[in-house]
Amino acid sequence: MTNRNERPAGADAGDAAAALEAAFAALRTEAPRPSAALMGRVLADAEAAARDGRRAGLAGLFAAVYRGLGGAPAAAGLAAATLAGVWIGASPPPVLDRLAGAVWAAPGEIDVGGLFEPTAIAGFEIEEADG
To answer: What are the extents of the domains in the chain?
Structure first.
């Protein structure tokens, strides 16, 4: 058995390099061409994909937006935030009425008295313990 690192008798490194260079030169001159059958299959797939894309229409737009937002976790977070906004908008806590009045009041009319007292937080009554 021969060692694969051994060179055959009479083989020269220059001959191997010249043969390799000749093989590369031959490959550079020949441009590979796909077969007609392959090109036909590729074009048929492209036409089918174009037809499917046109049929998707608005559903494709919603799918793209859904993927762009981040998929199911992001959609769930947006839905929860939307429901919380509707809930707070329909039944706002009493502190929001006073806070909105302070924010939208004309200059000089701001009355923050009692707004930040602990008993006024989110409409809950907090009883203070006698010391």
So the answer is: 92-131
